[in-house]
Amino acid sequence: MPTATIIEPTEASLALRHQVDEVWAELEECTAGQLPEERQAEAVQILEQIEASLTLAATRHAQETGGPTAPPEGQAGHM
After folding, report:
1. pLDDT tens, position by position, 27-65
2. Which of 31, 35, 50, 71 meets the CB 3.0–4.6 Å disulfide criterion with 39?
3. DSSP 8-state code for residue 56
4. 68, 24, 77, 19: which is closest to 48 by C-alpha?
């Protein structure tokens, strides 16, 4: 029977997470901060469609070649 393992973040990882969040917020402001909210939502929809297409292509490629499969849609590269 499998055993459960509890994994907790260290102080160093929490500090790093804070830095990543700050950099990510700055990146968002630099790239989309000047766009009206409706345009930002439009951009997100387009990027989600691109992600879905790439995930499908990766899954098909993996099935054809026996390689690793793509992560589930909506989970690629997200924290």
Report:
1. 999 999 899 999 999 999 999 999 999 999 999 999 998
2. 35
3. H
4. 77
Contact, 79 vs 20, CB < 8 A?
A: yes
Place of tokens 């899954």: 59
Rounded Cα gap, residues 7 and 54, in angstroms: 31
Q: What are phi and psi of 78, to 5 degrees?
A: -100, 145
Q: Which of 59, 63, 60 is nearest to 76 (CA)?
A: 59
For residue 51 the two structure tokens come to 């992600």
The pair of structure tokens assigned to 11 is 């102080």
- Cβ-based neighbour number of residue 34 at 10 Å: 9
pTM, to two decimals: 0.56
d(CA 52, CA 50): 5
